[in-house]
Structures are given as C-alpha cells and as structure tokens.
Write a structure and sequence with these properties.
Length: 450
C-alpha cells in the first residue's frame, strides 16, 4: 500500500476515487468518508498539528480543480482528492505543479516491486495544463531532468530489488534481541532491558523500511511495527509521508515543529507561542528523547481507535500482551524508555540543523529534489557499531531521494549519488555523526538564548 501519496490514494480508496475522478457523484460521496483529515501525529516530541482542512461539501470540493503533472502529462485529481486517506489538502498542495519526483519516491510504479499506484494513475482523466501552472526555473528543470535519468539507470540496474539474505539477516538480528531480552528478563533485568530496548530501536528502523518498501514481502510485513513496538502503520504512514514530501518546510513538516518541547527556530521568527522552559532546552533536550516511543504508542492507539482498524488493534494487543504479561514491569517500562531515546536522538538528526524553509501556503516551497539536498545531510559512520545504531538514518539523503529502495543498498549507492550530485551541481553534504549530534545541540542552545 503506497504511503500517503501526493498524487494518489492507497488501495482501499481506489474504486471510489476512480468514480470520483470520472465525475460519478455516488463514488465521490463514498470517498468523502475518507476525506476527513487524519490527526497529524507528533514527531519525536511534537504536539503541534498541521492546520486542519475546513469541512466542505462534495459540491464545494468539486468546484476546486486539482490538476497535477506526472511525467509531462497533466491529470485531473479533483475527485480523487476526496478519496485521499490523508485528506484532500495534501493533494491540493500539488495543484498546478509537477509532482513526478515525489510520486516516484513514494509510490509503487513497477521497478520498486509493484505497479499499483502507476495503474491507478493511468485511470485518471488527462487534462491540459491549468492556468495556475507553476513552471520550474531553467536550473531546476535541468537538475530534475538529470535526476530522473539517474533514477532510471538505478531502476534498470536492479537497485530497488530486495535481496532475501539481507532481509532474513535483518529480521533475525532484530527478533534475536527481543528473544534474548525475554529469556534474561527474570534473572538479569538490566541486561534484558538493554537488549529489548536495542531490539525496539532496530525494529523501528526495520518497520520504517517495510512501510516504504513495495512488493509482496513488504506488504506481508506491513504490521511488523504494530507487533514489535505497538506503532500503527497507518498513523506512521500519514505522518512520515508528509515529512518526505515537504521536508523541513514550516507548517507542513512536523519534524521541524516540535514546540513547546523543542524550538528549532526562535518564536520571533515563527510567530508561534513561546515557552518559559525554552531557555533550558539545550539542557533537557536530549534526555527528553526518552519519551519518543511513549508518544508514538499513544498516538498510534488514538489513531487505531479513531479509525476502528481491527487488524492493527489485534497486532498491537499481541504486542502489549507480551510486554506486560511476559516481561517484568520494570523491564517493560525501561525498554520502551531506553529504546525511545536511542531512536529519538537519531531519527531526525540529519535534518534539524539544516535549512528550514519558509512556508508556501499554496504548495511545496521548493522542487522535490532541490528540497532534499537543501534540508538533508548524511552522517558519516566509519565503524560497524555506529552504523548499526543509526540503522540507515546515516544515509538519509539517499533514503529521501529513493525511499522505496532497500536500506542496505544505500551505502553502496552513496558514491554514485555523490558523483551525480557533483556533475549536476547539487550540494551533497556529509559530516561525521558526532558533528551532526553536536550541531543539533548547538542549535538548541542558540535558539534557547535567542
């Protein structure tokens, strides 16, 4: 199932969406049941939600055309927007814009394991360019054209295909940490807590890879995050795809809107309310990441209840049954807390000290490829231990440009991407992981004193 597509919705919305796109009012009415905006779940410690859509009737919605461009072809997504599981606002951001690169980044289109999204795209009505078309600059157009050729070469060379041995290795490695902790829980609670906490962090990275991946294997592993960490796949998909589509954009990417806990920009610049504890955020900041998994679990349960998703409910119930019926309570609570810290301290580290782009209320502030280079820095991990704990987050730029590629291929891809970036004049940036953590702390300190 594709994650919150900017140009299409997931499999469950396909039939009503097709009817809506063709103008069938019955299909549109059914689709509107899914058009209510989902609650924007918090980033590691964010409690702010992106602005919600105003309620509107089907007739009002259909009077707002949504025309998007994919591969030099314009499509009418007006009716389809109403079927979008993340709300119509997401797709409307791309009205009059080229959504090709974000479409291929987040969807199943063939070379990455499935053709579901591409098949649905073909069913949308083709239209002429709208009057509101936003054209790229010559420089952006040249960069985008070169990048698309680069992506096609990677597709032809099989970079998006999954390798069974690597998949089994990562799965056994992660589940082995859970098993070891479970065995040690009664006699060695501290070691058990550490083992399960590391397993929870690794399970988070692995579930993240499955959610982005395409094909039968990733679909079969869709509920892995529910079973291992109590995280709703649907909730995570909505939140995370917004981050990928609008990386480091004010009012769109929650990972850079973490108030009142963290301020990555002074309130005088954002216009958002200040907090009396901001002046100490560089002191309490990193320890506070320990609540990451608690917040994600809470948001997941709230999302599951709101949607009535019984499959996710059952998967999460099994996880909580193991957590509190099998493990001693201190081990269970400690594992969630330590695992959350290990994940939260790294999950957004490669973005938080980079450029935060001003909000364009009509759509993306920058073209997709340009935005990823401006907002993302790779972390250099030169030893196997740091690479293990970073879990692929150290090759974040590669991931943001090719999210559906298996994470174990990113390090091999890095020199190829660096070579392409140099030829295209794109600013590829990489720093030691210790420097990135230090820069994040300095950002918290500087904003605390602002």
């Amino acid at each position: 199932r594709p994650p919150v597509p900017p140009a299409m919705a997931c499999a469950r919305a396909a039939k009503p969406a097709a009817a809506a796109s063709a103008g069938a009012r019955g299909g549109v009415r059914r689709a509107t049941r899914r058009s209510a905006p989902r609650s924007n779940a918090s980033s590691p410690v964010s409690v702010l939600a992106a602005p919600a859509e105003e309620p509107e009737s089907v007739q009002e919605a259909l009077q707002k055309p949504v025309h998007i461009k994919i591969d030099d072809q314009w499509y009418d997504a007006t009716g389809y927007a109403l079927a979008h599981p993340g709300g119509a606002r997401f797709i409307r951001f791309f009205h009059g814009r080229d959504a090709t690169d974000v479409f291929y980044a987040l969807h199943s289109y063939g070379p990455n394991g499935a053709t579901t999204a591409a098949d649905r795209l073909a069913k949308l009505r083709k239209v002429e360019a709208p009057k509101e078309e936003r054209k790229m600059s010559e420089q952006d157009a040249a960069t985008v054209s070169s990048f698309r050729e680069f992506r096609q070469h990677l597709e032809a060379d099989g970079w998006f295909k999954r390798e069974p041995l690597h998949e089994v290795r990562l799965l056994c490695q992660t589940l082995g940490l859970y098993a070891l902790g479970t065995v040690l829980a009664a006699t060695q609670p501290l070691l058990a807590t550490i083992s399960i906490a590391i397993g929870m962090q690794q399970a988070g990275w692995l579930a993240h890879d499955f959610v982005h991946g395409r094909g039968r294997w990733c679909e079969a592993m869709r509920y892995f995050g529910c079973l291992t960490n109590g995280f709703s796949t649907d909730w995570w998909t909505q939140k995370h795809s917004m981050h990928h589509s609008f990386t480091n954009e004010e009012h769109k990417d929650e990972d850079v809107m973490q108030e009142p806990f963290f301020f990555l920009q002074p309130p005088s610049k954002t216009g958002r309310p200040d907090s009396p504890v901001r002046k100490w955020q560089h002191i309490y900041g990193y320890p506070l990441f320990a609540i990451t998994f608690w917040l994600w679990r809470f948001d997941s349960l709230r999302s599951i209840k709101r949607r009535g998703d019984w499959k996710e409910a059952v998967a999460c119930a099994l996880q909580y049954a193991w957590l509190f019926a099998v493990l001693p309570l201190p081990v269970a609570l400690g594992s969630i807390t330590l695992g959350g810290f290990l994940c939260g301290a790294l999950v957004s580290a490669t973005h938080q000290s980079e450029e935060i782009m001003d909000n364009d209320p009509t759509g993306p502030t920058a073209e997709y490829v340009d935005a990823q280079f401006r907002s993302t820095r790779d972390a250099e991990c030169n030893d196997p231990i740091s690479k293990f704990f970073w879990g692929g987050m150290d090759v974040q730029l590669e991931h943001h440009l090719f999210p559906s590629m298996p994470r174990y291929k990113y390090h091999r891809l890095r020199p190829l991407l660096q070579s392409w970036a140099k030829a295209a004049g794109a600013g590829y940036r990489i720093s030691p992981w210790t420097t990135i953590i230090a820069d994040n702390w300095k950002t918290l300190r500087n904003v605390a004193k602002a």
